[in-house]
Structures are given as structure tokens and as C-alpha cells.
Amino acid sequence: MLVAEKVENQAMFDLCLELGFEYFQGYFLKKPEVIKGKRVDANVQSAMNLVSALQDEQINIDTIANLVSQHPKLSYQLLRILNSPVAGIPRKVESIREAVVYLGLTQLRKWALLITATSSSNKNIDQLKLLLVRARCCQLLADNSKNISSDVAFTMGLMSGIDLLLGIDRQTALKQIALQEGITKAILLGEGPLGKLLYCTMCIEQERWDAIEKMPSPIRKALNHAFFDALRWANDIAQELRQ
């Protein structure tokens, strides 16, 4: 098992990857600090209300557009992300309604959820990036599963760090967001297929090499590929959010 230590930035990570390292440690992969608290300010509460509304499977594009329009910063960042290479849309998107033509409600919900959570956070971009890596890694692992929705997995990964994103206690946050029961149980109790998927992702995020070594070889291989791909994707998103 090859472990690269003191990985401080993207360039160092890419070099170690080319040299054949399998696992990595360092500031570039640093786990964000947890800040707990019970008080929820108005901006955070507004973001949580929108995140909760986006979980409604019956929500339609008009409702999403109206909700997003109430958050100017979200509207701006969402359209900018959708018009960047990371979204993969072949033409310029002028409105939220137009975006659904290319993305569909499920994908639009994912992007709106991501931007809502990150734009409402006072965390620095590197800490946000780690949570984006977690969400994307969960999504990519779910792509290899027959019984887990990749979009649900992404939501679970991002919402598992809602306390980090919004700076409030996890229990407080999850009580106010209408997540699917399976997502909540996976986050709080590690239950079900989603819980196992989150466990694998957290193992590599937290550099728990002993636990990873005990996983079957196909799972280790899939986890490595998903994590590396997620790092690159999250870096692209972070660059867009910096602008």
C-alpha cells in the first residue's frame, strides 16, 4: 500500500497520482473543523427552508424557479455554474426554466441544492471543497450500484455535512430539512445501503487505511477511482465558486 504524505495542493496530488500512489494524506485532504451551535440566523434559516423545499419529489419547475428567484446570490451562482464547462450543457442557459430543458428536475434540484448550501456558508472554499468531494464520491459509487440512486447518494453526501456548511448542530439541521428517511438514517445511524456507501466514503476521507484494507478488492478499486474523480470535479466547482 503506497501512501503519499504531506500532500499540500492540487499539483502535488496530481504528481503523486502519476507516480502510482494509492492513498494520500495532507492539508489538501484536510478534514474541516466541526463548529456546533444551536442558534440559526436568518440567512441560514432561509437557506434551510429552500433546501427542505427542494426535497419535495412533487415540486415542479415553476416552484423551483420562484424559490430560487427569492435568493439573488443563488440565482447568479446557479446560472454561472450551469453555463460553465463542469455542467456540460451545450448552449448558454438564460433562465432557471430553460435549464430544466437540458438537466431535468432531478439534476436541477441537485445543482440548486449544492449552490444553496455552499453560498449560505461562511466556510472557506477549501473546506467546502472537501464536502463537495464527499457528495460526488458518494454519487460515483452509487453509479456502480443497482439499488441506489446516484442523485440520492449525492444529496446524502452533501447533507451529511450540513452542520459544517451552515455552522449549526447536525441534529438541529436535519430536523428542519425534509430529507428522505433513508438519507437521515444513513447520516445519523449508518443504516442501509446508503449508510454503507457513506461509510466507505468517510473511510477514505478520514484516511482510515486499516478499514479500507479490509474491504473487498473491487470495492477498494471503485472507491479509489471515485475519490480521485471527485477531487478533480470538486476542484473545478470550487474554482467557479471563487469567481
UniProtKB/TrEMBL annotation:
Top-level taxon of the source organism: Bacteria
InterPro entries per the UniProt record, alphabetical: EAL_dom (IPR001633), EAL_sf (IPR035919), HDOD (IPR013976), RNase_Y/CdgJ (IPR052340)
Transmembrane intervals: none
Pfam families: HDOD (PF08668)
Signal peptide from the UniProt entry: none
EAL domain location: 1-46
Occurrences of domain HDOD (ranges): 40-225
Protein name: HDOD domain-containing protein
Species the sequence originates in: Maribrevibacterium harenarium
